[in-house]
Amino acid sequence: MKLKLKLPNPGLDERIPSHAELEKLELEEAGERPQWDNKAQYMLTCVGFCVGLGNVWRFPYLCQSHGGGAFMIPFLILLVLEGIPLLHLEFAIGQRLRKGSVGVWRSINPYLVGVGIASMLVSFMVGMYYNTIIAWVLWYFFNSFQDPLPWSQCPVNENRTGFVSECEDSSPVDYFWYRKTLNTTPVIEDSGGLQWWIVLCLFCAWTLLWVCCLRGIETTGKAVYVTSTLPYLVLTIFLIRGLTLKGSVSGIKFLFTPDLDELLNPSTWLDAGAQVFYSFSLAFGGLISFSSYNSVHNNCEQDAVIISIINGLTSIYAAIVIYSIIGFRATERFDDCLNGNILTLMNTFDLPEGNITESNYDGFLQHLNSTVPAVFQDLQLKTCDIQTLLSEGVEGTGLAFIVFTEAITKMPISPLWSVLFFIMLFCLGLSTMFGNIEGVVVPLQDLNLLPKKWPKEVFTGLTCVVSFVTALVFVQSSGNYWLALFDGFAGSIPLLVIALCEIIAVVYVYGIDRFNNDLQFMVGHKPNIFWQVTWRFLSPIILLVILIFYFVTTVSKQLTYNVWDPDSDNFPTLKEVNYPSWISGIIFILAGIPSLSIPGVAIIRALWKHCSKDKEKNDERSISGKEASLNTIA
Amino acid sequence: MLAGVLLLIFLPPLVAKDLCKDSQDGFKVRLSIKTGLGDDAYEWNESEMFLFRSTLAYAMRKHSNQDTYTIDNILVCNDTQRVSFVFVVTSTDDPDQLIPKEQVELAVRQNKHRINNAFLLSDMTLEFMGIPPTLSAPIIYDTEPWLIVFGVVIGAVAVGIVALLMSTVSKKRRAKEKAAGLSEEDEGIVKENGTALSSLGRKEGVYNQAFSNDDRFTKL
Questions:
Q1: Are the beta carbons of B168 and A161 separated by less than 8 Å?
Q2: Average pLDDT estimate for A70-95
Q3: What is the full DSSP assignment across A450-503?
Q4: A320-345, pLDDT tens digit by residue?
Q5: Could you list the residue ranges that cross the membrane (chain A) (predicted)?
């Protein structure tokens, strides 16, 4: 079915290699473009890029908070309708045009270079804060080589009569995270200076990244054999360990208990769509780059489907592992709470030990309430409810650095589990960073901003150094708040805008008919009706809906953030504070500049062309004038 | 006479009870044996109480450096089923005089470790109400363990960077030498006839761009 709606795009054939040229390139393996050593490297790199920290600490939270097993329905539907088509699109266009993100959009239409530049900016900003999270992971990893773990007990105060008060009021894991790691200030304006230990870890993270990306895919291709496979091994080890712990099965049951009413809530579908989109690392430009190193006849359709399935299954697998450990932790907390109450009762009423057990606890409470209600009220026993403890859903850094670390301290041989866990997080993060670096370095090369004869090592090194220096903003005491800001604004709306522009550009500017022919040339058959429907209508519409809702909710909600303030009333609960007024400027820079660079670059180019055309006309007139005068003279 | 004798016999315990019950210098003690030891828990009986009194006498001896404290100096009352009771310490010189609270507290704090071990319990399971436990000193390392691991990782990374950069440099040098060598060979091929080409095993020769179908550059 030929599409009648197609935007005019003169000169397209001159900008892109034809099918015949591609065949020639294929046969003689000419060109300085790097290549994958084998298909496994390519698949592992893409899987590593897609599978990241979000699969471990965002998806389980979403799953549990949006109705457990019922969340699978919107997630899988949107995976098929949104994730797979967009992934296939990026793979195919990269493989066909054999360039990085800037090169691809420039080939399609020079006015679309803004899309590539936006991808580069977003990759740079996201890479900056993502690697800071990896620096935190490294800090915890370095600290895991001691027994007892430093976050298992509170530090003692000066006269050794008790624990440090900040720790006493909250918990050892909270104290270690907020005080010993971040040394966080109560407000974002309080910069608090650089924390030298995190600077060292950040330096370590960037140099490790540089060593793996030194020569582009030549080095990353070797690194991914470890970084992409190790997380699965560790997840399996944790699953086996988790299932042998008390209470783990209740956690898994809680995760998957379906609440079908949640399907009627639009925010469930929105969150599912957003999760699918961000989970696939689309619109960063890295996937387009990686595909461009493939051979022309690589079956990108099959790759897209396989990687999508792997990504989806990894999310579900990680959720099972995480919730088995959370179930264990909730059960331990419940037991502690109950035992604490029983001890209080025994101490108050001087009863022998063993009189009150978990089984007769409730009966005993009732008995006491009826006989001595006054004393009973005074006791102020804590309510212990396992459901509340299980639904203390945490996501993000809170899950990894607070909840999970606490669970690890309760396991035997804690340092071993801690080391394994943080190695897994490190590998997950590092393999995603490879894609980010690719999304920054290749556009830099394509834009010809720096001399071409500089070797690739210099490009990657320069990117790492500049990112390290700018990421020092996250190493201050208030760094955690800056990171949350970046995560909320730089890594959300711009990506949706870029992806929408990408799909419209390929389908309506490049032309879906030409694209179908390309796929026939590359893969051997035209994409079937599923791809046609999703590329032309469904995926752009879903993206547009998610973008509009995201935009509306972001703009309408009050700009607040949560702080750790030991002096607040509700300590240790995080306090909600308003952002200062100048934050709007920062938000505009983060979200606005990448999004606006898409039309911005097009306008600048149009103006430049207009000016140069005028100049040409003037030059022609002056030349013809001179010729005329020459003729008259002759 | 008999009444006098009876009074003398029963007075000390009665007086002792009064000393213990009403005094301000007493401490309440609470043991949680089952919580601390689980299945290995022992029964609390008179012998265990005897052990407790003797360990306290020991603590007083060590604290005051007087070897005169005996088990009779430790008086116990308010024994409950919880296994909690109150004790006071009488002075060695005068059985009606009690040792002040602060002294007893110091004695207990100095020797808590020994008292705990005598009962196989800990600060959590053998509580002296009002005496805060002396927490163990934090472990002070010469070098923090995390710095050691950091040093190892950074060292490995530095070695990796140097190795990769050296290999790039040596590769480039080898490529330059090869190019210089090949250019000499090239002249040789041109001078000789076709057989040299085939002996090299190349495919179809060199792709000559001058004859390509590229009309990209020739549009008027």
A1: no
A2: 94
A3: S-TTS-HHHHHHHHHHHHHHHHGGGSBTTHHHHHHHHHHHTTSHHHHHHHHHHH
A4: 999 999 999 999 999 988 888 888 88
A5: 42-59, 71-91, 111-142, 196-217, 229-256, 276-293, 305-326, 416-437, 458-477, 489-512, 533-552, 582-608
